Amino acid sequence: MSDDLVISGGGSTEVATAELLSQQQHLHTLAVELDACLGRLHTIDSRITEARLRTVDAPLSSMRAEQEIDGAKASARSARDRAEFLSSGLAAAAMAYGDAEALAGRIAREMSSILAYQLGFWLPLVGTLALPPLLAGGLALGGAAALGYALAPEAERRETIRRWLKGNKRVLRDPRFVEFVRLAVSSTDDFGEGVIRLPEPIGQLLGDEGLGILGVGSSAAVLVGVAGSAGVLRETPVTVAAASVKKGPPPPQNFEERAKRIPTGEDQIRIDRYSEPGRPDRFEVYLGGTIDGSVVAGSEPWDMTSNLNAVAGGAAGSLAATEQAMALAGIDSSTPVTFSGYSQGGLLAATLAASGDYDTKGLFTLGGPAGQVEVPHDIPYVAIEHADDLVPATGGTWKSSDPLLVTRTVYAGQADAGDAFFPAHELSNYRETARLADASDEQRLVAARSTLQQFSRGTDSVQSSYFHAVRVPQ
Amino acid sequence: MDGTDAAFGVDAAAAELHRLLLTQARELDAVLARFTEARALLPRHSDTGWRGFAHFVYGLKLDELGSELARLHEQLSSALRQTRRAADTLGSRVG
Fold first, then answer.
1. Where are the domains of chain A?
2. How far apart are CA A321 and CA A340, in angstroms?
């Protein structure tokens, strides 16, 4: 497993490994300290002059001391310059790498948009030309496969998916494939624009690179709409009830502790209330990940229906459930609140923070597909993603949010990554990355950790509530 | 100025130098302590994610800086030792 973190964003174009940025800061501090030492040596040296030493026939050792001080001044000056040179070099490298990466990302997004548009534009024609020869065989094969899949019992369908995922595990966690998915997801709107023959300049104007009216959200909305007519991904009302209320542990002091508070059981929502005499109560909302992978809504709101509807910007069941739980906990639009979420919980957390309906003081996501959620830049936002995790990539590229992004490739170059289908998406791996982020003294990470920590400062007592949400059958 | 005055003047200057040397020793000790703490900030390895030539050059520059800091440490330590020795010698003269 790799422990290397890459830090980017958070209002800066710097992109570098946490180790590089840490070394850059250490070298800068070393240069500052050496400069201070040099200043003190100048002051010391100015008090005892050679003339004074000669006047009193001073011991030879005092002369030697003066020579050593002169030498120390020269060494301190040289070492300070070297340290500053190295520090500036590292900072410049990080900045240049960040700029290059941003440019490469922009080019990749634009290329992907153009390709998707062209594909959508020409596909109907290619389809028409190729249809007759392919129709018979294609329909026969595809139809048989689809029919077989549709008619198979639920258990068999799950087994088919399981087998496919198992057979393609290595590809699915290849960072290049993950990046491809991210770009492809971000280009779905361009593909659709091509299919409906929307003139390219208008498509660009309406798309992510223009006004942002069309994008992943609108594409997901189309998908949800079409799927809904087939009886899948159809939203339902939800109900929420408090499952337990107890005295909570002290507030989290770092990213790892925050990650550990994210619920993993059947109660999907945890809300901690911080009380302090003379101050209004503050709240931390923790949201778990997807529990049910089925596309047909059952009783579990943390399912694929909610996932897709949340990406589409619609009324996802899990989102409605969280809003209900927050209201039950006593959170309104003026209550200071922070959100932390994993996977679907991360998407919900970002959506709630971006809604403007709450007084959001901080946002912390782990593997959340929230790239297209427009979180205001004044909300402190830390997002942890794994480069070999497909799930956050399904949220598309970062549209307008600028979180402090901590990226880690968990299984870099490793052939065996265990039995899980998406091992890099496991919460345990995200908790480990959070721990590594805590261990880093990279400036932006330190500042973000401190900001999130300040939210709970002065807390007198903590009350932890768990909420359980279910879908109401229709 | 007679011989007594001159001797008194030299003794006073020696006493003043002794006082200055004691102050210098104290201050050098403080500088050395601060420097020792700062020296620990020097990265111990050049593993920043860089590879190839950039990694090699960075490692080389870190080594050079490490040598420079070692020299500075030796000079400060020596300056402190000599200052204390001078203060002791002069102290026995001025009483």
1. 20-106, 113-229, 238-471
2. 16
What's the order of all strands across the beta sheet hosting A269-276? A15-17, A6-9, A404-408, A381-386, A359-366, A336-342, A279-287, A269-276, A461-471, A238-247
Domain assignment of residue B62, given as a range = 3-94
Count: domains in chain B: 1
Phi-psi region of A453 (alpha: psi -120 to 50; beta: other; left: phi over 0): alpha
Tens of pLDDT, residues A5-35: 888 876 665 666 777 778 888 999 999 999 9
ipTM of this complex:
0.88
Burial of A300 (0-12, 13-18, 19+ CB in 10 A): buried
Q: Is A474 exposed, middle or buried (0-12, 13-18, 19+ CB in 10 A)?
A: exposed
Structure tokens at A14: 């710097």
On chain A, the residues whose CB falls within 8 A of the CB of B79 are: 65, 68-69, 72
Whether A254 shows a pLDDT value over 90: the answer reads yes
- Pairing mode of beta strands A381-386, A238-247: unpaired
CA-to-CA distance for A52 and A350, rounded, in angstroms? Answer: 71
Hey, which residues 32-71 in chain A have their CB within 8 Å of chain B?
A: 33-34, 36-37, 40-41, 43-44, 47-48, 52-53, 55-59, 61-62, 64-65, 68-69, 71
Q: Reduced to 3 states, what is the DSSP secondary structure of residue B65?
A: helix
In chain B, residues with a C-beta closer than 8 Å to the C-beta of A36 are 34
Q: In angstroms, rounded to a whole number, what is the distance separating the alpha carbons of residues B66 and A75?
A: 11
Q: Which range is least confidently modeled, A60-69, A219-228, B46-55, B66-75?
A: A219-228
Which are the contacts of A387, defined by CB distance < 8 A and separation ≥ 6?
A175, A178, A179, A407, A408, A409
What is the rounded average pLDDT of the residues A33-50? Answer: 93
Q: Retrieve residue A202's tokens.
A: 């208008």
Across residues A174-178, what is the average pLDDT?
74
Cβ pair A267, A466 in contact under 8 A: yes
pLDDT tens digits for chain B (95 residues)?
455 555 555 678 888 899 999 999 999 999 999 999 999 999 887 666 666 666 777 888 899 999 999 999 999 999 999 999 999 998 888 76
Which helix (H) or strand (E) segment holds residue A187: the answer is: none
Q: Is the pTM of this model over 0.90?
A: no
Confidence of residue A395 (pLDDT cuts 50, 70, 90): confident
Is A469 in contact with A281 (CB distance < 8 Å)?
no
Residue type, A191: F
The token pair at B73 is: 């440490």
Q: Whole-angstrom distance between the N-terminal and C-terminal Cα of chain A? A: 46
**For residue B69, which residues of chain A lie inside 8 Å, CB to CB?**
79
